[in-house]
């Protein structure tokens, strides 16, 4: 048993606490999972966005109605969330295209572009959000 | 030299490629429409309606919707393949997703050509 002594304690199972506080995703992992979450969110939201497009194009009344509707706080917040989802999905997608071409795959660059994507997604959301309201 | 296909029907590669091509189409559309909206006159009903009545916008939006349909199908199917393991549940969800996408497309066409 000479070499069976030093053994680091390892988590035996993935508790919720471990998932939330101990296992840390690298930045690129965050970009990736947020790409997935934002994509699913956008897919589910298309029905709502189509509804608003439909109403806004149907008539002048419909357009003004949608303008008022989009001004309501919960609607505004939801639209802002979707705007972020779109911007993040857009930026992260462009990053993935570069990765497909073997560009920026080394760790330092990948980490830098991950940070850039997250920042660009938020910045675009802020800019377009400000333009909208 | 023996030219041989090692394995599979290669629809994985087709979907992979389609995912990227449709993404590029949607990205170009996004930039163009954004430029039109920001560069044009302030949006009111007349401007909004006029934009969506123009031929190029209708075709471009339809192209966007078709790209979105394909892109979303590949993406959501990937998610289902990762997280939903029982075959019955996965198949049910996949069919539901396809129906939703078909509905989205039909509705888009209805909105564009009214």
Descriptive notes:
The complex is a heterodimer of chains A (133) and B (114). Chain A is mainly α and 133 residues long. Chain A has a single domain (32-132), classed as Up-down Bundle (3 helical TM bundles of succinate and fumarate reductases). Chain A is 79% helix and 0% strand. Chain A has 5 helices and no strands. Chain A has helices spanning 16-22, 27-58, 60-71, 73-100, 107-132. The N and C termini of chain A lie far apart (70 Å). Chain B contains 4 helices and no strands. The longest helix of chain B is centred in the first third of the chain and has 29 residues, at 11-39. Chain B is elongated, with a radius of gyration of 19 Å. The chains are: A mainly alpha (133), B mainly alpha (114). Chains A and B meet through α2, α3 and α4 of A and α1, α2, α3 and α4 of B.
Q: What integer value in Å does the Rg of chain A equal?
A: 21 Å
CATH T-level topology of chain A: 3 helical TM bundles of succinate and fumarate reductases
Task: Using the coordinates above, name the CATH class of chain A.
Answer: Mainly Alpha
Sum up the overall morphology of chain B in one term: elongated
Proportion of residues in β-strands of chain B: under 5%
CATH architecture tag of chain B: Up-down Bundle
Low-confidence stretches of chain A: none
- At the first level of CATH, the class of chain B is Mainly Alpha
CATH architecture field of chain A: Up-down Bundle
For the residues shown, what is the average pLDDT of chain A?
A: 91
- Approximate strand percentage of chain A: under 5%
Please estimate the helix content of chain B. over 70%
Shape of chain A: elongated
Q: State the CATH topology of chain B.
A: 3 helical TM bundles of succinate and fumarate reductases
- Helix vs. strand class of chain A: mainly alpha
Topology, number of strands of chain A: 0
